[in-house]
């Protein structure tokens, strides 16, 4: 076939098994992926026909040149991420805040006032300021805040991207007649993928060959048991989970080998369709974002009301006599807006959250969005999958039951480290216990021989001499690998070192057992059948039993005893597997009675002769296997409970297993584990609930769910949210993605999680550990506490400024700010002075409070409710009280330096009013700065004395020192005097400033004493 015909063939038929991807991310991706709809379903077509339509020889695969051409045509084999937001849009998004809108309005007003003043300046006069400095300063500050927010969010996104790039998956394909290992992203339609145990399937494909092939499709279909695969053409179209001749992207091989021809890659695969659908869902704001929007609106409305009241009052009392009165009124509005808005709030909040993101990353929690940090700290329910998160995801043989007794194996996971311990039994003699241990070794040897798993030893960066340099990898079915590990723990591997497998009767879901035939090279090649399977099934093929080194006929009593042991282990949540064997007494299968021989004199495939080989077996024992809980998780569950956080386990496992693990971890008590009906609900039982109210009642009381499907997870999350909970939901498979997306804080697994789930989540666990979630909750609560601290500080400072401006204007004549007979409005503090306070002297202490150590045990409190405000009534009380005190001492300090006031120093009478006003503003400006420095210390707690942990935060003291130096500079540096309208102060004036500022601390302490006294009652 020439290249042109190949292109036509591929163009028509490469996009099998699904529609072309919609909503592609770029025009290039559209050109690569928008193929013609498929003419046939590959599951309904013969494998050779599929290969022919894709233009590939199954025996040699694609040539490298052809593969490169197809890669250029169809694009990389990867899931398209969400449409990348342009950088300019990300930058402009930083301005989406009501407070920013208010400041922009203030900027506009300032510009209008400047233009009016310039336009109405008398001929030859200077016309006021050369440039609109107030407007310029405000805009510059907004730009700085936006740049800071953009940079910090970009860093968080880079951290997530770095996680996804930690390992580049690879795949074995047939190219130019040779097996080559390539990056999965380079797989193309028509590639021949070579599959083996433990491989991740890189794309959707039609099977051409399969040998005992089983695939774990839980990440796609939710099926918890690996699915058997074959090459047979389907007679009719079937559901995804029933297409036995197809393999799908994102699934993995647990057993056997196979070869498949790739029919769909990237977004054209089944996983790609799900990923595309998920991207249509919008993200909701976090509770903190909603609260900050609310606070912004409240401040904006408040300042508008205050400005309106002041302007109306001035219009009624004095009127607007000329254009200068209008300008003064507009500048008053600007001053009020600048005073009310904490300009540094957005930047400080961004930095504090970014620091929290960094600390969480150090604890293996990668947060994708800054505001998600606080959301997790507010979580009231953590819904967690069992496997891999609460447990180690490492199947472990813990019990071995033999005819002579029972033993226990120590050690967990895939490291072959542990020993055998006899379980005390008063009815057993010492010899019987010894016999039980010998039989246990034999049982594990049989299980390791009748096995398709592999335990790989990997050496790390060291020389391999240290134990820490060695890691163990399970290849194949985890249950089978657990038998190999157990056998190596007790040195049972020595018993089968001389055996060589010559044939296998594979496991199927119908047979529920498997067997191998192996020859003993140390015994003239004599053959033995080794079998394992479900104990109740395998017993039906056993006629003898090995007891204490001797083989005798199996009695009915033996069978009943074995079945009773199966029931007992199952009740303890163990998965049981029986082991048996049968010596064939010959070195040739052809000599075994009943074995079929074909016309050529060869033995027919033994997989078809199970009825001959799998009978008259000798029972040796059985094992109890469990996926052990993570040792650290029990303490984390207890810590979560102490913090008022409910832990919910959602698993597809058996109810008995779920109850056992939940009991071990403290999610339910031992009594609850014994009474499954009241503590565990299955997916079937959830489906039987009559209505939403019954469902909500069930989720309110039940914390363990077993045998659930993906849609059940989503319903459970939605039900918990209806009850007012902030829900964290973990997930790894594609089928978990909708529930993870719906949860208030979706948590994806960094190791076992699929790309689709990671994209849906707000946080990724780099270590897949439940304890990391609890640690993130602790960090989130600490961050939230610190946010409240600096909000209390910033807003009380801003309210103090507003009250100062408002009071100074309304009481101007009373305080001496305006002289008798004067007209117009005189603001007590200039807009530039207020900006200096908000952006420089306030910012450093507020930022230091963002890393303030906890003043109490954050995990000893109940979670916040959705209805709880970040700034609650108590905090508003703090803010208004301190704001009034600040305004009062500031205006008193100004009054002392103005003629005609209540507390006027008579020595100022000789100075002109303009000079008095400049000095008074400097006094008020400086008093307000130092009052806010002391307020920073007071704002660390609502009711705890400032002297408790006074020096715990060294950063705060450094910030106060920096702010003090900045204020000294603005008072004494000449060019700053000109810019900010200040003059140097005398030593006596400094004493007045500090004395008046101290009143804020004294008033705060008195109020806290009253609050503590009220709490003790």
TrEMBL record:
Gene Ontology biological process terms from the UniProt entry: intracellular potassium ion homeostasis; intracellular sodium ion homeostasis; potassium ion import across plasma membrane; proton transmembrane transport; sodium ion export across plasma membrane
GO molecular function: ATP binding; ATP hydrolysis activity; P-type sodium:potassium-exchanging transporter activity
Catalytic activity entry: ATP + H2O = ADP + phosphate + H(+)
Bilayer-spanning residue ranges: 99-116, 131-151, 298-317, 329-355, 790-815, 835-854, 875-900, 920-938, 950-975, 987-1006
An annotated GO cellular component: plasma membrane
Family matches, as InterPro entries: ATPase_P-typ_cation-transptr_C, ATPase_P-typ_cation-transptr_N, ATPase_P-typ_cyto_dom_N, ATPase_P-typ_P_site, ATPase_P-typ_TM_dom_sf, ATPase_P-typ_transduc_dom_A_sf, ATPase_P-type_domA, Cation_transp_ATPase_P-type
Ranges of residues in domain Cation-transporting P-type ATPase N-terminal: 41-115
Disordered as annotated region, ranges: 1-42
PROSITE patterns assigned to the protein according to its UniProt record, in alphabetical order: ATPASE_E1_E2
Location in or out of the cell: Cell membrane
One Pfam family matching this protein: Cation_ATPase_N
Keywords, comma-separated and alphabetical: ATP-binding, Cell membrane, Magnesium, Membrane, Nucleotide-binding, Phosphoprotein, Translocase, Transmembrane, Transmembrane helix
Biased composition (Low complexity): 24-38
Membrane topology designation: Multi-pass membrane protein
Family membership: Belongs to the cation transport ATPase (P-type) (TC 3.A.3) family. Type IIA subfamily.
PANTHER family, alphabetized: CATION TRANSPORTING ATPASE, SODIUM/POTASSIUM-TRANSPORTING ATPASE SUBUNIT ALPHA
Protein name: Haloacid dehalogenase
């Amino acid at each position: 076939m020439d290249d042109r015909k190949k292109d036509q063939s591929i163009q028509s038929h490469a996009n099998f098994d699904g529609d072309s991807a919609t909503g592609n991310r770029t025009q290039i991706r559209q050109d690569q992926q928008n193929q013609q709809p498929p003419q046939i379903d590959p599951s309904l077509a013969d494998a050779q026909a599929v290969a022919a339509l894709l233009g590939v020889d199954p025996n040699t695969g694609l040539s490298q040149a052809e593969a490169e051409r197809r890669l250029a045509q169809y694009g990389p084999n990867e899931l398209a991420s969400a449409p990348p937001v342009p950088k300019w849009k990300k930058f402009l998004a930083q301005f989406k805040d009501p407070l920013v809108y208010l400041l922009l309005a203030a900027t506009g007003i300032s510009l209008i006032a400047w233009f009016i003043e310039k336009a109405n300046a008398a001929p030859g006069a200077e016309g006021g300021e050369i440039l609109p400095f107030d407007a310029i300063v405000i805009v510059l500050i907004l730009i700085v805040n936006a740049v800071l927010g953009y940079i910090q969010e970009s860093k968080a996104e880079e951290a997530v991207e770095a996680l996804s790039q930690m390992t580049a998956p690879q795949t074995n394909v047939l190219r130019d007649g040779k097996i080559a290992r390539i990056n999965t992203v380079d797989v193309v339609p028509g590639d021949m993928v070579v599959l083996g145990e433990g491989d991740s399937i890189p794309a959707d494909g039609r099977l051409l060959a399969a040998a005992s092939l089983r695939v774990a499709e839980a990440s796609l279909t939710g099926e918890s048991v690996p699915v058997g695969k074959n090459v047979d053409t389907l007679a009719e179209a079937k559901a995804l989970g029933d297409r036995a001749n197809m393999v799908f992207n994102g699934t993995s091989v647990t057993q056997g080998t196979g070869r498949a021809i790739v029919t769909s890659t990237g977004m054209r695969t089944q996983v790609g369709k799900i990923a595309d659908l998920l991207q249509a869902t919008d993200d909701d704001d976090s509770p903190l974002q909603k609260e900050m929007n609310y606070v912004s609106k409240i401040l904006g409305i408040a300042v508008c009301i205050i400005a309106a009241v002041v302007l109306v009052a001035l219009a009624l009392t004095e009127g607007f006599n000329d254009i200068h009165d209008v300008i003064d009124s507009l500048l008053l509005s600007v001053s009020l807006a600048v005073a009310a808005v904490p300009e540094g709030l957005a930047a400080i909040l961004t930095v504090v959250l970014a620091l929290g993101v960094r600390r969480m990353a150090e604890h293996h929690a990668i947060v994708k969005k800054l505001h998600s940090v606080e959301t997790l700290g507010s979580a009231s329910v953590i819904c967690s999958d069992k496997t891999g998160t609460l447990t180690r995801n490492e199947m472990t043989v813990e019990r071995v039951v033999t005819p002579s007794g029972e033993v226990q194996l120590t050690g967990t996971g895939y490291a072959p480290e542990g020993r055998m311990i006899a379980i005390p039994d008063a009815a057993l003699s010492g010899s019987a216990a010894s016999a039980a241990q010998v039989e246990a070794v034999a049982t594990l040897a049989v299980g390791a021989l009748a096995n398709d798993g592999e335990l790989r030893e990997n050496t790390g960066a060291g020389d391999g001499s240290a134990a820490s340099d060695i890691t163990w990898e399970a290849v194949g079915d985890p249950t089978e690998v657990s038998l190999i590990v157990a056998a190596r723990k007790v040195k049972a591997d020595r018993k089968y070192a001389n055996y060589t497998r010559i044939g296998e009767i594979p496991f199927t879901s119908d047979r529920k057992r498997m067997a191998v035939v192996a020859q003993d090279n140390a015994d003239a090649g004599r053959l033995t059948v080794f079998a394992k399977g479900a104990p109740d099934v395998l017993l039906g093929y056993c006629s003898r039993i090995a007891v204490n080194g001797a083989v005798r006929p199996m009695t009915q009593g033996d069978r009943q005893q074995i079945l009773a042991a199966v029931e007992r282990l199952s009740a303890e949540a163990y998965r049981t597997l029986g082991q048996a064997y049968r010596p064939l007494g010959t070195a040739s299968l052809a000599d075994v009675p009943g074995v079929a021989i074909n016309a050529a004199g060869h033995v027919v495939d033994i997989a078809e002769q199970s009825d001959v080989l799998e009978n008259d077996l000798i029972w040796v024992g059985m094992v109890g296997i469990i996926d052990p809980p993570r040792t650290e998780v029990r303490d984390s569950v207890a810590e979560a409970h102490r913090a008022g956080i409910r832990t919910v386990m959602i698993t597809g496992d058996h109810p008995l297993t779920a109850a056992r693990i939940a009991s071990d971890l403290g999610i339910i008590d031992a009594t609850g584990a014994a009474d499954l009906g009241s503590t565990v609900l299955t997916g079937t039982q959830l489906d039987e609930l009559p209505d939403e109210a019954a469902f909500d009642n069930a989720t309110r009381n039940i914390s363990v769910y077993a045998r659930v499907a993906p849609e059940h997870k989503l319903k459970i999350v939605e039900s918990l949210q209806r009850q007012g909970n902030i829900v964290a939901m973990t997930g790894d498979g594609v089928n978990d993605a909708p529930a993870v997306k719906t949860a208030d804080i979706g948590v994806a697994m960094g190791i076992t999680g699929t790309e689709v789930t990671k994209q849906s989540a707000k946080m990724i666990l780099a270590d897949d550990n439940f304890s990391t979630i609890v640690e993130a909750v602790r960090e989130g609560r600490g961050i939230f506490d610190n946010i409240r601290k600096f909000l209390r500080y910033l807003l009380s400072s801003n309210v103090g400024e507003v009250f100062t401006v408002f009071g100074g204007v309304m009481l101007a004549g009373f305080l001496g700010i305006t002289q008798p007979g004067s007209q117009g409005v005189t603001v007590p503090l200039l807009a530039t002075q207020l900006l200096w306070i908000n952006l420089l002297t306030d910012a450093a202490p507020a930022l230091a409070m963002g890393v303030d150590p906890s003043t109490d045990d954050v995990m000893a409190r109940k979670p916040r409710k959705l209805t709880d405000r970040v700034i609650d009534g108590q905090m508003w009380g703090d803010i208004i009280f301190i704001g009034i005190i600040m305004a009062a001492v500031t205006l008193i300090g100004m009054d002392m330096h103005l003629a005609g006031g209540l507390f006027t120093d008579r020595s100022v009478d000789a100075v002109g009013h303009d000079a008095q006003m400049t000095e008074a503003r400097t006094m008020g400006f400086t008093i307000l700065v130092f009052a806010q420095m002391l307020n920073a210390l007071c704002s660390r707690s609502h009711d705890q004395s400032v002297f408790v942990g006074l020096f715990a935060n060294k950063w705060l003291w450094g910030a106060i020192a920096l702010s003090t130096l900045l204020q000294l500079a603005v008072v004494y540096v000449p060019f700053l005097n000109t810019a900010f309208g200040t003059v140097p102060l005398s030593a006596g004036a400094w004493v007045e400033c500090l004395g008046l500022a101290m009143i804020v601390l004294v008033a705060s302490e008195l109020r806290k004493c009253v609050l503590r006294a009220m709490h003790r009652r």
